[in-house]
Amino acid sequence: MTSIVVPADPVGTLSDAWRQCVGTGRLNLALRQDYRASLELVQSQIGFRYVRGHGLLSDDVGIHRPYDAAGHRGTQYAFTYADQIVDSWLELGIRPFLELGFMPSGLASGDQTVFWWKGNVTPPRDHGEWAALVQAVVRHAIDRYGLDEVRQWPIEVWNEPNLVHFWQGASQEAYFRLYEVTAAAVKDVDAELQVGGPAISPGADDWWAPFADFVTARDVPVDFVSFHAYTTGPAQPVPFGTYQTLRPPQSLLDQFARPAKLLAGTRLEGLPAHVTEFSTSYRPDNPVHDTAYQAASLAPVLAQGGDLVDSFSYWTFCDVFEEENIPTSVFHGGFGMLGHRQLRKPVFHLYAFMARMGDAVLARGADHLVTRDASGRVTVLAWQPVGGTDAPDEPGSHALRLSIPVGDATTTSAYAHRSRVDDEHGNAFTAWRRLGRPASPSRRQLDLLHEASEPGRSTTALEVTGGRADLTLTLSRHEVTLVEIEAVRDETPPWLHDARILGRAADGTP
Amino acid sequence: MTSIVVPADPVGTLSDAWRQCVGTGRLNLALRQDYRASLELVQSQIGFRYVRGHGLLSDDVGIHRPYDAAGHRGTQYAFTYADQIVDSWLELGIRPFLELGFMPSGLASGDQTVFWWKGNVTPPRDHGEWAALVQAVVRHAIDRYGLDEVRQWPIEVWNEPNLVHFWQGASQEAYFRLYEVTAAAVKDVDAELQVGGPAISPGADDWWAPFADFVTARDVPVDFVSFHAYTTGPAQPVPFGTYQTLRPPQSLLDQFARPAKLLAGTRLEGLPAHVTEFSTSYRPDNPVHDTAYQAASLAPVLAQGGDLVDSFSYWTFCDVFEEENIPTSVFHGGFGMLGHRQLRKPVFHLYAFMARMGDAVLARGADHLVTRDASGRVTVLAWQPVGGTDAPDEPGSHALRLSIPVGDATTTSAYAHRSRVDDEHGNAFTAWRRLGRPASPSRRQLDLLHEASEPGRSTTALEVTGGRADLTLTLSRHEVTLVEIEAVRDETPPWLHDARILGRAADGTP
Amino acid sequence: MTSIVVPADPVGTLSDAWRQCVGTGRLNLALRQDYRASLELVQSQIGFRYVRGHGLLSDDVGIHRPYDAAGHRGTQYAFTYADQIVDSWLELGIRPFLELGFMPSGLASGDQTVFWWKGNVTPPRDHGEWAALVQAVVRHAIDRYGLDEVRQWPIEVWNEPNLVHFWQGASQEAYFRLYEVTAAAVKDVDAELQVGGPAISPGADDWWAPFADFVTARDVPVDFVSFHAYTTGPAQPVPFGTYQTLRPPQSLLDQFARPAKLLAGTRLEGLPAHVTEFSTSYRPDNPVHDTAYQAASLAPVLAQGGDLVDSFSYWTFCDVFEEENIPTSVFHGGFGMLGHRQLRKPVFHLYAFMARMGDAVLARGADHLVTRDASGRVTVLAWQPVGGTDAPDEPGSHALRLSIPVGDATTTSAYAHRSRVDDEHGNAFTAWRRLGRPASPSRRQLDLLHEASEPGRSTTALEVTGGRADLTLTLSRHEVTLVEIEAVRDETPPWLHDARILGRAADGTP
Amino acid sequence: MTSIVVPADPVGTLSDAWRQCVGTGRLNLALRQDYRASLELVQSQIGFRYVRGHGLLSDDVGIHRPYDAAGHRGTQYAFTYADQIVDSWLELGIRPFLELGFMPSGLASGDQTVFWWKGNVTPPRDHGEWAALVQAVVRHAIDRYGLDEVRQWPIEVWNEPNLVHFWQGASQEAYFRLYEVTAAAVKDVDAELQVGGPAISPGADDWWAPFADFVTARDVPVDFVSFHAYTTGPAQPVPFGTYQTLRPPQSLLDQFARPAKLLAGTRLEGLPAHVTEFSTSYRPDNPVHDTAYQAASLAPVLAQGGDLVDSFSYWTFCDVFEEENIPTSVFHGGFGMLGHRQLRKPVFHLYAFMARMGDAVLARGADHLVTRDASGRVTVLAWQPVGGTDAPDEPGSHALRLSIPVGDATTTSAYAHRSRVDDEHGNAFTAWRRLGRPASPSRRQLDLLHEASEPGRSTTALEVTGGRADLTLTLSRHEVTLVEIEAVRDETPPWLHDARILGRAADGTP
C-alpha cells in the first residue's frame, strides 16, 4: 500500500494545461442541438479555454463559394455557418483553436477525401487563392469579434500532414509550402496573430528537424508547435467497431516530451508546445473510450502532462462525431467524454474531478495528486495505476494511506467528500451492457443510464490531530476517486442531541 | 429474513391517493423564487395533482380590501397576488385544493392570530360580508380559469377549528355556522362546486358526530370530509428547534381509517375522505423531517394509505415555510420534502420512488410493495420496518428475499436498477452534520450537499429461469430502496468480446 | 372601398387545415440547434400539428446500415439520429407526417442524386429489402412511441415521382411498384396505419387517373392522396439567387381543388387530400419568400384553403435548409417563415395572426376574414388583394370599412388591438436592405433586425352602439393586418380623473 | 424647431452615473419569482451596477434572532434569506448598495413603524448590540463573498432620518450617534469598507452643515454622502391612489447639485455624492410613474445628471413593492420601471435607450443628446421638453432637425433605426385604460398589454453627403425617441434588382 505523509507546504503549482484545450467533431457538427447541450454541460463542469476540430474550410461549413451565373463569376466568402459556430462557442466561454483545413472542393487540386464526410485532403489548386481564403477568414473574425479577441486564437496549419490519408502523398514539401503561404497570409493581416504547426500524428519524429530547418532557412514565422499523441496499436475491425492493443499511460507522457528534445538547439526551441489531440485510441469506434480504464489510464497524464507541454487537448469532448459514418448505437466507442444523449463517461468525471483541484500541489505520485486551494480546502485525486495490453491484468483493488494536512492546531474534525468512478460507479457503459446493449434505448432506459452515470458519493468525518488527518482509500479496479477535504468549523449549538430526534434519549423525556 | 414468492398475477391496483395532494407553506410564499424552483422539481419527479395550504384570505395575499378615502367607501376584491399564485400552480400542472382561511383583518371580529405571520383566527365580523368574499373569490376563479376547471377544485372550510390557536375558542358552534354560510355561498355560485370540512386535527373524534348531525339537521351541502393525521407527542422546545416522541407508523393508518368508522350510518358515510395534512411531526422545527427515519416510517403509509382514504397530503412539499419565524439554518427541521436550496430529503426520494411504481400490485407486505406497469417492468419498494419512540431501536440491517416474475419463458436475464436512501445515501442531512452544521453553507458547500442528496445507485444483471429472478436485498438502518427490474432483450452482436477492449484477449491478437 | 356589415351569427366554421402540417428542411437538419430554436418559436406562436420533410431514409440520417467485417455480413437498422429527431418533434408537440425517401445508397439501384446533399433518387435495388427497411422503421416507431401514436402519422410514399430529378426517369410504372410494395409492407405491420401518395408536383394531372386505376386494379391500400402546389414560373438564376414570375394567389386554390375533380368517380374519391407542399416559389433562393407580398398573397389562401383540402403544408417553417448548398447570406430567399437567426418574416406573422382567429367564421371575402371565439372576441384578418406578375402593380393603399358585432346591448366601448405587417412593419427584409444587405450581420445588427421584425402595433377604443362598432382600416401596400376586438367591461372607479395625473386639473388643487 | 449641426468631434464623455444604481422594494421582496424575472429583464436590457433598498435588518429578512429556550439565551445572526437575496443579485451582475435599516424588533427601543410591512424606525435599544449586528452582517458578507467584493459595496446608514415617519422624532442627534457607532463598527472590520450617509430626503438642507460639523468634530469616517430627490408636491389621496402636483424636471437637477454647494469648504467637500433615490413622485400609488410623461420628464435628467453626482438611483426598478399594502390592480401608480407581470413602462424604455448610447458626447441640449461609440455608430436620444403642473400643457408635437456626422467621405448612405415611446407607442398604460382598466387582466389581455408595451420601430435610409446626414424628427406629445445611425457598407451585388422579385421587371423576362 502506498503510504504518504503529504507535506503542508506546496511543492509546486498545478498547471492549467490539462484544460487549455479540448477536441471536437468537425465544425459543421457544432451547429447541432446535442453538440450545444453537450458543450454546455462540459463547460459548466470543467471549463475548457479552447476548442479545436477539423473542417473549418470544408464544404459543409460553406465559406469558400465560387459562383458563375447570369454572366457574373467570382468567389464569395460566406460565414453564415462559421459565425453561428463561433458565436456559440464564445457564448459558452470557449475560444477557437483554429485548424485551417480541409480543402474546399472549389479550391482543391484533386479528389482525395478522408472520412465518411469526405474532407478533401489535396493541396490548393492555387496558393494565391488559398492565401486569399485564409485572409478572408481571419479578417472576418477580426471584423466580427475584434482584433484583441482574435489575437488569442492560435492558428494551426492543417492536420496530420505526415499521414497519407490526411494529406495527399503525405508530402513534406507540399506541406511546408502550404505552411509558408499560410503563415505569411496570416501575419500580413496582423503581425501579432499566432500561427503554428505542423500538427503531426504520433510516429513522425522525422518531421521535426526538416520543419525546423525549413522555417529557419526561409525565415517563416512559427509561434507554436503542435502534434498529437495516442497509445493504441493497429485497428482490428469488427462491424461498427474496432479493437486495438494499448500501450501504458507513460507512453503518452513520453510522446508529450519528445518534440522538445528533438527541437533543442533549433530556432523552435522553447516555443509553446500544444498537443492538439490525445487519447488512448485514435479510432472513433473503440469501446475503450467508454470504460473506467480510460479514466484510470489518463489520470496520471492529466496530473503530470502540464510539466511537459502548454496544452494537451482531449480528443474529443463529446460523441457528436461522424468520422466513420453515423454511430449505430448509443454507446459505440466514440471519442467523447460525453456519449450521445449527454451520457457522462468515466473520463468526463476524471476531468470534472480535475476541475475541483486547487492550484497548489502538495503531493504527486504514481497513484495520487494532492492539492490545496486558496480557501484551504485539500483535494485528493487517486487512481489505480494501470498498464497496457502487455501488462498483467490490474488487481481487484488498490489501497493508499495518506496523512493530510488540514486546518490548524485547533481543528478537531474534517469533512471528507468522496466521489468515485469505476466499473460499478459513474459508469453508464456497465449499466448499458447489463441492459442488453440496447442500440436505441427507450426514454425510460435513458433515464436509468443517466442515473447510472452519476459518480458514487460518500462522506466521512475525519478526526484531525495536530493539523493532520489520516485518509485510507481502497480503490476498486480501474477506479478514479476524488476526495475533497475541509476543516470543520463546528456550529453545533450545545442544545442539540441527535438521539432526541427519535424521542429515545433519556434526557429528552418530556 | 422475509422471503416472498411474488405472484405473477396482480392482487390489486395501486391507488393514486398518495399523490393526489401535497401541502404548502402559506399562499403568500407561493410568490417566491425558491418556492417555484422547489415546486418545479417536485412536479417533474413526483407530479402531485393538488396543492393545499393556509392563508388564501389572509392580509398578505391581499384579496379583501376595504377603502375609505376622498369620500369613497367600500370593499374592493383584489386578485393581484392570488392570480400570480394560481397561474403559477396551473403552469406546473397542479391544481388548488382551496382552504378558505384565515380571516382578513378588515373582516375579523377579533385580534387573535396564529403563527409568526399573524393569521387572524377569529370568526367574521359579518357573515354576509364573509359570504360575499367567498363568492368573489370563486367567481373570479371561474372568470379566469373557467367553470370546468374550478369544479375540480375542492373547497375546504377553514383549518383545524377544533384547536384554540386556529379558531378562536375552538367553538364548534361558530365553526358550524361558518361552514353553513360558506357552503351556501359556494353552491349559490354553482351547485357542482365541491365543498367540505371540517379539517380537524388529530384527537378530535368528538367532532364527527356533531358535524354529521348538524349538516343533516340543516341540510347543509357536504361533498367531502377532511381531517389531519400526525404521530408525534408534545413539543420539547430548544432554541430554534423542537424534539418530540414518535408513535409508530401504523398510528397514521389508524388515524386515516377512523372517521369512516365514526361516520358509518350517518349522511356522511361514503363521502370522499381527504387527509388534508399528515406527517410524523406537526412542528416546523423538528429535525425528524430531515432524516431517513422519516422516509422509512412513511413508506408503509404510502403503500397502504390509499385503501383507507381518497387522498393524504404530505405536509409540506418544501421548506419555504414560516410558521415559526424565518428558519435560521439551511436544515432546521422544516416540514418540506425539499429543504432550502432545493436540497432533496430522504422523504422526497420516497415519493420519487413511489412515482416510478406501476399500477398493478403484485405483492404488498410489512417491508415491501411490488408492482408491475403496462410495459412489464416490475418495481420493488422495500424498507426497513421502524417503530416509534417506545419501540426498540432498529437493527443495523434488514434483509428480504423475493422471487420476482419477470419476462417470459425465453427470458434469461433481467436488469435490476437499485436506488437507495438511508443514513449514508441520499442524505444531505448526514453530510451537513459532518460539515459542522453550517447554518449558511457556502456556495461550494451547497454543491457538496446536493451531491450528497443523490440516492445511491447500483445495477445488476439477474439470472432469469422459468420467468423468475431471485432478488436478495440487504437494507441498512432506516433504508428505503427502489429496485426497477426489466427483462433484458439482448442486442449484443456475436462479434463483441469485451475482453478485447483492453487488447488482452487471445482472439484479439492482431 | 369594401364596406361590410359583418353578421352577428356565424356563417361557418374555420377549418384547421392551414395549421395541420408544415414543411421542413431535410430531416438531418432537425438535429440542429437553430432548427430547434426555430421550431420552438413556431410552435409557441402558431402550433402546427404535423411536420413533413425529405430525407428520412437518406444516408445522413443513417438508418439503413449494411456491414461486412471480420466475417460478419448483414444489415443493421440504426435509429440513433431518427430517434433524436422524432423525440424532439414530439417534445415540441408536433408529429411526423412521414415521407418515405430518398433511397439509402446501400439499397439504391443507381447513382442519380438530387440537391447539394445528394439524395439518391433511384428505385431500390431489391424491393424485398426496401420492404424490410420500411417495416423496420415503422416497427421501431411503434416500439418507441406506441401503436396509438404511430397510427396518427400519415405515411407518404416518396416525393414528386413525376419529376425526373426526384425519381429516376420519372417512371410511373416504377413508382406504382414502389407504392404497392410500400403500402403492403406498412399494412403488414398494422392494418390501421395510414399510407398514401403519390406526392406529385404541380403540372402532373396526368398521374391521377393511372394512379386510381392501378390501386383499384391491384387492390392496393390508399388512405389519403397527396400533391403539391406552387405559383411561380421557370427559374431565372443569378449568383446565389433566382427570380421567377408569379401567378396570382387564386392559382393555389385552383391547384388545391383540382385532384378532387379528377378523382371524382374513382375509388379515391372522398379520401383525405393533403397538399404536402405549397408556397409561391418552389426555389429555396427566391427573395419573394422574404417579402410582405408573400404574406399578402397567401392570406386568402389560408382563409379559404380549408374548404378544399384537409391540409396544406407551407414549405417550410424555417430557413435551416440546404437544397442549393449553404446559404451565403442571412436573407437569401429561403423557403422559411423564419429566416436564419430566427428572424420572423411577414409570412410568419400571417400564420401567427391566423393562430389568433376564432372558430366561428362571421364573414369572409376577397380582402378579409372575420371570426369570433368562444369568449366573444372578434378577430379581423384583412389584407391588400394582390395579383401575380401580369397583374397591374398594387396601389399604395387599400381601405375597408366593417361594421363589427361586439358585446351586447349594454356595451358602450370595445378595445381594438391592431398588428400590421407590410413593407415597413414587421419586415426585417426591408431593414436589412437599408443596412446594405450585410451577408453576416454583426450581433448588434441582428438585434436591430429582430426589432424591425416586430409587427407594428396600435390600439384604439371603438365606440359601440347597439352591439356594433365601426372599424375602418387603411392598409399599406402588401399589408396584412390583424385586429382583435373585445367588448370593454369598464372597471374604472368613479374617483379616477386622468387629467389629475399631471396635477393640472382644477379639482385636484390640493 | 431646434436645428443643430452636431459636431464630428466629441464635446465630452457620457458619465455612467445614470446606471450606477437602482432602487428596489424592501429586501424580503427580492426573494420573489416576479422580482427575479423583473431584475433579469432589467439587467439584460439596461445593466445597473448596484441595487439599493430598505429592510435588510427588518424582521422579515430574519437576521437578528434573539433566543431564550430550554435554559439557553442569546442572539443568533441568521443569513438564510440574506444569502439568497445577495446570491441572486450577484448572479444577475448587480451588487448591493447596502442600506443599514430598519431596526429589528428585538433590538428596537420603541414600537413606531413605517409602511404596511411595519419597518421599525426607532433607535437601537443598545448601541453596542447594534454595532455587533452591523459587524456580524459585514463579516458574514466578507466570509461568503470575499473582502475584495465587499469593499465595493457602499454602506449607507439608515434612510431619510430627517423625516419623522422614517426615524423616530427625526432626531438629528440620535441619527448622528447611530452614524458614528455604525461607521466605527464597519471600519473596525476593515478600514477600506466604504460608509456614508445621511440619506436625507428633499427639503433637509439644514442637515448638511450639522452633519459636516459633527463628523469633523468627532473625526468620524465618511466615504460618501447620500441624499434623495423628488419633484412632486403633497399627496392628494383617492382610494388605492394618489395625485400630486409636479415641479419641472430642472428641479431634480437643482436638487442633485445642491449638497455640493452646501458642503463646499467642509471636510465633506469633494466626496462621492450619491442620489440614493429619485423620481418624480415619492408615492408608490401615483399613476404618473406609468406614463410617457415620466419618461419625457426624466430624459434630460439622465442626460445631464452625471455632471452633478456620482450616481442617481431610480426609485425603483419594478412594481414588486408594498409600502402601501398590496397593489389592487396591475397598474397602480407603482414606482417601478416595470409594472407587474414585467410590463415595460415608458421609463423602462428611456433607460434601455440610454443603455444604447455611446461614450463620446457629440451634442447635448434641452431636447436631445447625441453620442458616438467606439464602432462609429451615432445615437440620438430626443425628447419633448416638458414642464410641471404650472407649465402650460405640452403641445401635440415637437420637431428637431439635426445634421449628423456619419461615416467618412466615401459614405453615401446611413441606416437609421428609430424606437419611440409616447402616449401611443411603447405604452401599455394607454392600452390598459382602453381595455377598461382591468385590475386582473386575463392571460390573453396580458399578452396584448405586452405587445402594446413594445416601442414603435421604424427604419430609414438616410442620404449621406460629405460625411453628414440630415435627420428630421417630429415627436409626439411626451415622446422619447432613440435613433441609432450607422454608415452603410453596401454589400449589394450588381446582379440584384428588387423589381424582379415580383417578376415584373423588363430585364427579368425569362
UniProtKB/TrEMBL annotation, chains A, B, C, D:
SUPFAM superfamilies: (Trans)glycosidases (SSF51445), Glycosyl hydrolase domain (SSF51011)
Protein name: Xylan 1,4-beta-xylosidase
PANTHER family assigned to the protein according to its UniProt record, in alphabetical order: ALPHA-L-IDURONIDASE (PTHR12631), BETA-XYLOSIDASE-LIKE PROTEIN-RELATED (PTHR12631:SF10)
Organism encoding this protein: Isoptericola luteus
Domain Glycosyl hydrolases family 39 N-terminal catalytic: 7-465
Entries under Pfam families matching the protein: Glyco_hydro_39
Family stated for the protein in its record: Belongs to the glycosyl hydrolase 39 family.
Record carries keyword Hydrolase: yes
Key words of the record: Glycosidase, Hydrolase
